[in-house]
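Subgroup meeting minutes
Present: P.N., E.W., G.H.
Scribe: E.W.

1. P.N. recapped why we're keeping a running log of single-chain structure predictions: easier to compare across weeks, and new members can see raw inputs and outputs side by side.
2. G.H. added today's entry (453 aa).
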Amino acid sequence: MKELQTLWKQVLNKIEIAVSAVSFELWIEPLEVLDFPSSQKLILVANTEYAKKQVLKRHSEQLKSAISEVFGEDVSFEILDPIGKKEYLKKNKPDSKQTVLEKEEQQSTSFDPKFTFDNFVVGKCNQIVYAAAHSVAENPGKRFNPLFIYGASGLGKTHLLHAIGNYIASERPNLKLKYVTCEQFTNDYINSLHGSAKELNINKFREKYRFADVLMVDDIQFISNKNETQEEFFHTFNDLFQNNKQIIIASDRPPKEIATLSDRLKSRFASGFIQDMQVPDFETRVAILRKKAQLEKFIIDDEVINFIAEKVDTNIREMEGLLSKVYFLATLLGKPSATIEEAREAFKEDLDEKREGLNPDIIIDAVCKYFSVSKAEIVGKKKNKEIVEPRMIAIYLTCEMLDLPLVVIGKVFGGRDHTTIIHARDKIGEQVKENGKIKSFVSAVKEIINEEN
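Output recorded in log:
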């Protein structure tokens, strides 16, 4: 199994430089290698049915090509969703129930070795949250409990969580660590409610989470609108907190902006230390890219580093993904180092990929999803701040991401005059440069658009 995981890591490395950073993180990296039964077919598992569909729709060819290169031309693959995984194990591995449980527990304490405090680039944008995370890692349960980290996708929240996990696992190996996404916590809870032994299943679920010395929950914003899950998480939180166990939570927004989050949970989160991760400035972005090039042993011209740092200013993962793509293009051309020509070509390809199939409705839907407003409100006449700001962001993104006449954009947004569109576009454009909060909003909405387009 260890050899299989090594080969799969090679597959991931090949795909990572062939697709965008967002696509890799969302759809490819979470794939799990379940089995390689006949040396002819690799059995993979996606974390949701939707993820399975997205991988097959978007990246089937890249996956097929990379698997053929690593495992051999005759090897095919099959992707299962979580239900399909259970059926496969039941059919092919009758004695695997305990093994699967043990594997899940092992994964919950397994942190990516690439994500450490040593290779986390500290700048003005993240120095406070870095210091808090390091303090928590050194003294879990003593200070900053809970630690609530928030910021737009791609700014390094997950890196810090894994860095905390790696540090504690190394320095305090006796502590039980549990890292999950909010989606995993929700699915575990829902699964515990099914079956004939409901009470036993719920007790197992609670034992799984409440026996942790350190609980980390990523993307907690997805607990929005899940009232029963919120109730269960509230009691899990209380149990851990009262026993001086460390709780670390990451989100793309602060607690007060998570729609339908119960007041009790908001109060619990606010009882600890809440800190945002801001968009890195140019100098920090350059430092991050240089660190990435150093770790990956990329030979990259300084001009390329500066070009990428200027072009991608809201998402570190996207920036690093573009750097990998630039280097990959250079190696294909047989160049000793990546130059500005490859950088421009890679950036153009990324723009073309993002714009393919994009339309104003997709942008408006993403804004509505993030701000919990309706499309009717976005295109309507209401002028309260809760609606005006999302509306202006939707207009700005439509202008930025689509090549449409201003008059057409005005019609999309309720028949507004083109001067109104210009005002919204320019105002948000200026705020993105000066206001970290607005820049974070825009970045988060772009992530939703990229995920669903």
